[in-house]
């Protein structure tokens, strides 16, 4: 089993690309808890190898509460609410056919914590398969791709409806494309997925999106776009919007003055922020129709934000029971992570997620809390690490951070064994940040690069750089006698224990180190202003061809690339122009985008990985650790194993509509 799933992960890219190019594709408590580590995904393998779920019931059925509403006349009958049998989506079940009812309790930190519930309830046009080996239709019913991957014909489900009962059709796709995405009404530029690249000149061409009929639309590229469906599944998961609602708020339809009036009625000070919320983060607003299994019921600023079952949801199980099984989701507003942990230990949540630092206490309290700790696989390059902004605004620090000897010094100055034991409870082995074995881009021996603790080597490298002057406290100074201090920014106190250890080791070789904790919004602003010189962070992605942002400077995102990303994002109008190996990364990415086949994509993706191995812009100290998901024992159909990664939408990859209480 283990060998088979490892092989599956190693062939992840090949299988994905083959699927994309297929013209006919449719696609008991222990005294000392022992970690499982990042073992392969047995449950994912089982799901991937099983047959596609099919409807075996002769008739469809619904939750008792909905049946009562139908009897009272307050809700249309089931056959008028969901697609016909041939178009309804049959969702696979992890353990067994579920029972209706119950309230799923989870914590969140309020409206700014949108993705906590956004990912689990998300319904994308296409979603990744259980093992990540390609995409499958979701909101879409099926698709066809021509031989050179320039034309994609996408079919929708006849009879599907929004949560308010209005039909969902190709018009909702075309409206989104023409009036929202292309016009950037919700603050997002046109996603990279919709551009194809000339393999000769590198010129970009925007796709054409046209309606074929009420339930079919076509996306036509000028040049081959082998990964179009995968890119859409990541970049633009909802390639649609409720046109009937958006027409009531968009300035294009109601005028600027009316749009501002509406925005203020909703509690927004301006139209722009209002449209971002209602066009991008729409799922937390009860006024906005959705295709999700649950829809918002009350004000997201409430102490408990409630999402209730969508009576028009378009998925059923194999027995024909309309999903979701669970009646509602209750999100309790909390102030900090400690409250979340204590409430989970007391059994006050049905599902919650944690990092490796809480592993021991969670395992020790499993029986008392009546829950189980699931260890899901993640694809991080390391569990602890640091990044230095290669474009940081101070020229002295920029020169220092761009010196590969300095990065090596920071790497060998630290005893990874201590970091492993104290910070990860031994779950993350001492190693360098690198692509995990079994994933695309793995390089033999990379995990050992600069990984041995060698303070003498670190001091020698720092002296070679010219950092030989010391202040009264014996901290190193720049060659001109000015003070040198490494300032790390973070938006969470979770990193504090790790940074305290890092600080000890850095300062032992003469590098004064500080940590500043700011809120998430402030950190984002500082990133855009190029004022985050260093950050305790690592890389987490399954495949650079799926999501390049952490490895390729395409936008302001991860700290190591700094304003290189702004330069690309602004088309050279702002930021810092990439040079040297960073420029080579962008050249390789252009070739990935312009690739005509899977082999070319793999070749140039690996070039990007090799440049990261050579430069080690992301320094890691311990290997990847499992993602911890704490689940009450009566909440069932939650996968034992899962690839917990943003590209696959984390908890959403478990398909929560089929969760139930037993």
UniProtKB/TrEMBL annotation:
Residues in Solute-binding protein family domain copies: 135-534
Whose protein is this, by species? Paenibacillus allorhizosphaerae
Signal peptide span per the entry? 1-18
Disordered: annotated span: 26-49
Where is this protein localized, as stated in its record? Cell membrane
Q: What is its main location?
A: membrane
Q: Which keywords has UniProt assigned to this entry?
A: Signal
The record, for InterPro entries, names: SBP_5, SBP_5_CS, SBP_5_dom
For this protein, the record's Pfam families field holds: SBP_bac_5
The membrane topology noted for this protein in its Swiss-Prot or TrEMBL record is: Lipid-anchor
CDD domains per record: PBP2_NikA_DppA_OppA_like_4
What is this protein's name?
A: Periplasmic alpha-galactoside-binding protein
């Amino acid at each position: 089993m283990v060998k088979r799933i490892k092989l599956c992960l190693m062939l992840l890219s090949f299988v994905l690309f083959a699927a994309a190019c297929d013209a006919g594709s449719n696609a008991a408590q222990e005294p000392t808890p022992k970690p499982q580590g990042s073992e392969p995904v047995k449950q994912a393998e089982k799901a991937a190898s099983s047959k596609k779920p099919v409807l075996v019931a002769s008739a469809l059925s619904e939750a008792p509460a909905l049946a009562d509403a139908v009897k009272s006349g307050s809700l249309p009958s089931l056959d008028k609410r969901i697609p016909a049998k041939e178009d309804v989506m049959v969702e696979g079940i992890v353990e067994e056919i579920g029972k209706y009812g119950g309230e799923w309790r989870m914590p969140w930190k309020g409206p700014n914590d949108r993705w906590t519930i956004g990912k689990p309830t998300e319904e994308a046009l296409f979603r990744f398969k259980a093992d990540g080996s390609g995409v499958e239709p979701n909101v879409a019913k099926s698709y066809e791709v021509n031989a050179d991957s320039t034309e994609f014909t996408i079919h929708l489900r006849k009879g599907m409806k929004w949560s308010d009962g209005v039909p969902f059709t190709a018009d909702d796709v075309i409206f989104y494309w023409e009036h929202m995405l292309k016009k950037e009404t919700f603050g997002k530029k046109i996603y990279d997925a919709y551009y194809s690249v000339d393999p000769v000149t590198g010129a970009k061409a925007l796709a054409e999106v046209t309606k074929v009929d009420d339930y079919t639309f076509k996306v036509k590229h000028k040049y081959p776009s082998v990964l179009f469906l995968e890119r859409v599944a990541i970049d633009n998961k909802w390639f649609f919007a409720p046109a009937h609602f958006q027409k009531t708020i968009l300035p294009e339809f109601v005028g600027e003055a009316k749009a501002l009036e509406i925005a203020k009625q909703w509690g927004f000070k301006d139209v722009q922020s209002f449209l971002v919320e209602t066009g991008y983060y729409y799922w937390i607003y009860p006024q906005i129709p959705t295709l999700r299994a649950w829809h918002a019921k009350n004000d997201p600023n409430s102490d408990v934000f409630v999402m209730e079952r969508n009576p028009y949801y378009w998925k059923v199980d194999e027995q024909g029971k309309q999903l979701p099984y669970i009646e509602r989701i209750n999100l309790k507003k909390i102030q900090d992570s400690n409250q979340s942990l204590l409430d989970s230990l007391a059994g006050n949540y049905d599902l919650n997620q944690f990092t490796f630092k809480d592993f021991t206490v969670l395992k020790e309290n499993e029986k008392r809390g009546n829950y189980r700790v699931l260890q899901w696989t993640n694809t991080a390059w390391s569990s602890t690490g640091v990044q230095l902004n290669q474009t940081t605004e101070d020229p002295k620090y920029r020169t220092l951070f761009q010196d590969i000897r300095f990065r090596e010094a920071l790497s060998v100055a630290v005893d990874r064994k201590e970091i492993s034991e104290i910070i990860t409870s031994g779950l993350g082995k001492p190693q360098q940040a690198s692509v995990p074995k079994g994933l695309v881009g793995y390089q033999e021996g990379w995990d050992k690069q600069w990984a041995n603790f060698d303070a003498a080597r670190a001091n020698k490298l720092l002296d070679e750089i010219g950092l030989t002057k010391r202040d009264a406290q014996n901290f190193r100074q720049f060659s001109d006698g000015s003070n040198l201090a490494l300032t790390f920014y973070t938006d969470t106190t979770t990193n504090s224990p790790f940074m305290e250890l890092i600080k000890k080791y850095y300062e032992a070789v003469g590098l004064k180190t500080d940590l500043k904790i700011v809120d998430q919004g402030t950190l984002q602003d500082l990133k855009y202003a190029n004022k985050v010189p260093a950050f305790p962070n690592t890389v987490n992605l399954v495949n650079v061809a799926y999501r390049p942002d952490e490895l390729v400077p395409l936008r302001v995102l991860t700290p190591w690339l700094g304003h290189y990303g702004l330069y690309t994002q602004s088309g050279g109008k702002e930021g810092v122009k990439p040079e040297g190996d960073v420029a080579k990364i962008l050249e390789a990415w252009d070739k990935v985008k312009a690739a005509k086949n899977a082999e070319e994509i793999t070749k140039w993706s690996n070039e990007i990985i090799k440049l990261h191995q050579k430069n080690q812009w992301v320094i890691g100290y311990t290997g990847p650790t499992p993602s911890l998901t704490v689940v009450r024992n009566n909440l069932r159909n939650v996968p034992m194993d899962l690839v917990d990664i943003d590209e696959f939408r984390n908890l959403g990859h478990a398909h929560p509509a089929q969760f139930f209480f037993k």
